[in-house]
Design brief:
Elements (H helix, E strand, L loop, with lengths): L6 H12 L7 E2 L15 E6 L4 E5 L5 E2 L4 H13 L20 H5 L10 H14 L3 H13 L5 E2 L1 H10 L1 H12 L7 H12 L1 E3 L1 H12 L14 H14 L5 H7 L4 E3 L4 E6 L3 E6 L2 E2 L6 H14 L5
Antiparallel strand pairs: 1-10, 2-3, 2-9, 4-6, 5-6, 7-8, 8-9
Helix pairs in contact: 1-12, 2-4, 4-7, 4-8, 5-8, 5-9, 6-8, 7-8
6-diazenyl-5-OXO-L-norleucine binds next to loops.
Amino acid sequence: MTASPDYQAILETIAAKVRPLAAQGRVADYIPELAKVPADKFAMAVHTLDGRRFAVGDADERFSIQSISKLFTLLMALRMKKETLWQRVGREPSGNPFNSLVQLEHEQGIPRNPFINAGALVITDVLCRHFVQADRAVLEFLRRLSGATDLNFDSAVAESEAEHGYRNAAMANFIKSFGNLDSPVDTVLQSYFRQCAVRMSCQELATAGLLLANHGTVPASGEALLTPSEAKRINAILLTCGTYDAAGDFAFRVGLPAKSGVGGGILAILPGELAVAVWSPALDENGNSLAGAMALEHFTTLTGRSVF
Ligand code: DON
């Protein structure tokens, strides 16, 4: 292993390069409340397993984590269900948009993977059967992993999505018709919208991601939440499915397991070394942060580090 890169200098170089790119993307507006976030926000944070932290931009400002929550709900469901989880959700890339319904009909209501909306609804159903208040359990899990005890939901975002969430509602009903949801559709949807509406900063996301860099053990507490094999598998699904139908291009450009959200955040993992979170609200056509993906591409280029 070569000497540690100068992460702070690299983050500052990246910020200068990618900030202007936000003008080429679009802030998500299908959840009207998200459209209010200024497109020119930018933040990036790197937390290493040896305890160093680097950041640039609005790295302590919280934003809507949206689909990044799907990573953490998967961790919770996997801990409960172990191998049996894969009877209800697959682990293949979908090659379709994150909110697509098309494969469900031919594939008997078994979503392709836990990171598209359909898969995350099934995962949320697992949590709804286990916890009286699944959304609170997810919030507590995120507080525990990030160390930020004051994390919370943005109720305005959750309600805004619930009002306009026809597609997710269609999906949940469709999955239910195949018998792959146990709880009432509305219970699952309400929990799902609230999980997506948790607000976290890049610093908090990077801390929360460290357990996946550390083979399943939370570095701060020494708690082994996943086995090394489970952590390896989650990282593999992040690489192949974490950025939807752009996952191939993202792996090609960036070379890190990562999960994106339509709030403009992306959390990426370099196993054995670090977690890196980036936020820029303007999205590309696949729903991934445009400047955020470019920032991660520069990050692996300039540090010379990736999983490959
Ligand atoms: O269900 C939705 O559409 C949103 N709550 C989350 C989608 C999302 O973040 C997709 N990510 N890029």
